[in-house]
Amino acid sequence: MIFEPTYRVKRVWGISPKALQSRGITTVLADLDNTLVAWNRPEGDRDFFDWHAKLQQAKINLIVVSNNSTARVKRAVTALGVPFESWSWKPLPRGIKKTLRDFDLTKDEVIMVGDQITTDIIASNLAGVRSVLVQPLTQTDGLPTRINRQIAKIITGHKEIHWEDDLIDPK
Ligand SMILES: [Mg+2]
């Protein structure tokens, strides 16, 4: 289903290198705002840097795939030290597909992580890559995001969502 993520995990830094490696994932594609950084802490979180260091040790790459402008994404990722694709037009799959081409990756070796069903998860499903829905780092942000959340609530039918700490395959 187009709105359905492959996995649901509380925080991006809960995703362990081991869980990624055992699923054949070499590269994590990640949304920026509210997934990797909170809007009110644009310099990044300590948890992020610890997690990124663990990925690097395990030789797993991280690429930011954001709908934001190049200037905005560049500003944010300079502090984080990760490559990026900007203007990715999620929920369209083109940004993810362009990332696969630009970084010479196959669909099967990546996973897309994001906090929005209406952009990140739909784009992943349309691009044919596995996805992880995470809880947004902050609840208070711009109007478009709040509208997206309302749409997401309608899509999920207000169901109680169970969030895991790491990638867990459904039984
Ligand atoms: Mg986001």
Element-by-element helix/strand order: EHEHEHEHEHEH
Question: At the fourth CATH level, what is the homologous superfamily?
Answer: HAD superfamily/HAD-like
Count of separate structural domains: 1
CATH topology: Rossmann fold
Structural class, by secondary structure, is alpha/beta
Q: What's the CATH C level?
A: Alpha Beta
Helix content: 25-40%
Rg is: 15 Å
Distance between the termini: 18 Å
Largest sheet: 6 strands, parallel
Please mark out the parts with pLDDT under 50 across 5 or more consecutive residues, or reply none: none
What is the global morphology?
A: globular
Mean pLDDT across residues: 90
Strand numbers in spatial order across the main sheet: 1-6-5-2-3-4
GO molecular function: phosphatidylglycerophosphatase activity
InterPro entries: HAD-like_sf (IPR036412), HAD-SF_hydro_IIIA (IPR006549), HAD_2 (IPR041492), HAD_sf (IPR023214), PGPP1/Gep4 (IPR010021)
Organism: Oenococcus kitaharae DSM 17330
Protein name: HydrolaseHAD subfamily IIIA
